[in-house]
Write a structure and sequence with these properties.
The protein has helices spanning 2-9, 15-18, 43-46, 94-102, 110-116, 164-171, 175-178, 245-257, 273-287, 295-300, 305-315, 319-333, 339-353, 355-367, 373-383, 387-414; strands at residues 12-14, 19-24, 51-53, 55-56, 59-65, 71-76, 79-80, 128-138, 147-158, 192-203, 206-222, 226-236, 267-268. With 415 residues, the protein is α+β, with helices and mostly antiparallel strands. The protein has three domains: 2-118, Histone Acetyltransferase, domain 1, CATH 3.90.360.10; 124-270, Gcn5-related N-acetyltransferase (GNAT) (Aminopeptidase); 272-415, Arc Repressor Mutant, subunit A. The protein has a six-stranded mixed sheet with strand order 8-9-10-11-12-13. Strands 2-5-6 form a three-stranded mixed sheet. Strand 5 (59-65) and strand 6 (71-76) form a beta hairpin. The longest helix has 28 residues, at 387-414. It starts with a helix and ends with a helix. It is found in: Nucleus. The record marks 192 as: Interaction with histone H4 N-terminus. Keywords: Acyltransferase, Nucleus, Transferase. GO terms for molecular function: histone acetyltransferase activity; histone binding. Residues 12-180 form the Histone acetyl transferase HAT1 N-terminal domain.
Length: 415
């Protein structure tokens, strides 16, 4: 029995290691291992342990054609568990799990998939072209590190856009591998809007497209006749990351909504740390153009209603985010060797960070009039930090925040 259990352990595979992706532009890409990219997570597909049972030397290859996102699946392994030897326990049905969780049908015939690549040239992105821009990137085919120019196009779509729903059904599968707590959206709701980012390139003299990333935005109602767009999901696919495309995609969304008069502000649903940094960078670059955010105003006036107004009217930035941008841009002007200036900045930010704690203390003081001394003592012991604990926690929060701000500042200084 022990040997059987040991053998079973050898048949438990890390699903993050087993799964690999490729975006296929031409048939030769099938055998080009440099195009492989891996999932960041797989618990939303294979469960909390992120494992697949029943195989040795397992490889789950999920390929998509780069434009139309036609999916191909190949599952290879050297050994598969025999239920007769494991108390009728069967290997995980990988194809079944992927089909159920991703809600798409896979082609498992490689020849058919390769033949379908001929239709890629006919693909045209759905929706309305909003922006075209170029980036400079190192040419992978150059031996001397030559720089090439790459062209990208951003498209705006609604649920009624021809071809969008079926295309999005394939595209959205990526979020389960890269965004924690992700879920598919209800595309029957016309308040959903879509921004699709494509690379536009030439191959054999033909103009082609490759999907690079996308974002979904939900347009909430805001009294009395306004809308408040909320960015729900945004993903730049791994082969296109670290090239400034996340900032370009977010800027494109901003540029679309800033022209709509009844948009109050643009919000973000549960932003990850990485997304928040992109947001901070884009908002800082924008606000650096505004009069109220110039260095002299940051120090002479502090955080003012004029900053809130100008950020909201020009870039649809809400008050909370405007305050954050103010703090980042102000830190950028701090000369840390100037101890008084640096201390003044830290005190200002810590005062803002301490507001929730101060509010709780004020609420407790109001309640004390209705409580006995023993009840007050018990509540303070259970929920109220000592002065030492509070100051230590506040200092830790500040240091973490400054570290994040510094990363945004470094990116601003690089560009």
């Amino acid at each position: 029995m022990e040997s059987t259990s040991k053998s079973a352990d050898n048949l438990v595979i890390d699903s993050n290691e087993a799964v690999e992706f490729k975006l296929i532009r031409e048939a030769s890409d099938i055998n080009n291992d440099s195009l492989i990219f891996k999932p960041v997570m797989s618990h939303q597909i294979f469960g909390a342990q992120e494992t697949i049972f029943g195989y040795k030397n397992l490889k789950v290859s999920i390929y998509f054609s780069a434009a139309q996102l036609n999916p191909y699946l190949n599952i290879s392994y050297s050994e598969k568990v025999d239920p007769k030897n494991y108390n009728s326990v069967e290997a995980d049905n990988i194809h079944g799990i992927l089909t159920e969780k991703l809600e798409i049908k896979f082609n498992q015939n490689l020849d058919e998939f390769i033949n379908s690549l001929d239709k890629e040239v006919k693909f045209k992105p759905p929706g309305e072209l909003k922006e075209t821009f170029t980036i400079e990137d190192e040419d992978p085919n150059s031996i001397d590190g030559a720089i090439r120019e790459r062209e990208f196009e951003l498209y705006y779509c609604e649920v009624t856009t021809p071809g969008l729903i079926k295309y999005h059904q394939r595209l959205q599968t990526f979020i389960l591998w890269y965004i924690d707590a992700a879920s598919f959206i209800d595309t029957d709701d016309e308040k959903w809007k879509f921004f699709l980012l494509f690379e536009k390139y030439k191959m054999d003299g033909e103009m082609m497209y490759a999907i690079a990333g996308y974002a979904t935005v939900y347009e909430y109602y805001a009294y009395p006749v306004n809308i408040r767009p909320r960015i729900s999901q945004m993903l730049v696919l791994p082969p296109f990351q670290r090239r400034g495309l996340g900032a370009a995609l977010l800027s494109g969304i901003y540029n679309h909504y800033r022209l709509i008069k009844n948009v109050t502000d643009i919000t973000v649903e549960d932003p990850s740390e990485d997304f928040q940094m992109v947001r901070d960078y884009v908002d800082c670059k924008n606000c650096m153009e505004l009069k109220s955010f110039q260095p002299e105003s940051l120090w002479s006036n502090g955080f003012t209603p004029e900053m809130v107004r100008e950020a909201a009217e020009t870039f649809k930035i809400n008050k909370r985010q405007a305050r954050r941008i103010y703090e980042i841009l102000k830190l950028r002007t701090v000369k840390k060797e100037n101890e008084n200036q640096y201390k003044q900045y830290r005190i200002e930010v810590k005062r803002r960070l301490n507001l929730p704690n101060q509010n709780e203390q004020n609420k407790l003081k109001k309640l004390e009039a209705y409580m006995s001394p023993q009840e007050i003592s018990e509540i303070k012991a259970a929920f109220v930090l000592s002065d030492g604990q509070r100051l230590s926690s506040l200092d830790k929060s500040y240091r973490e925040l400054e570290s994040i701000y510094e990363r945004v500042i470094n990116r601003l200084d690089e560009n």
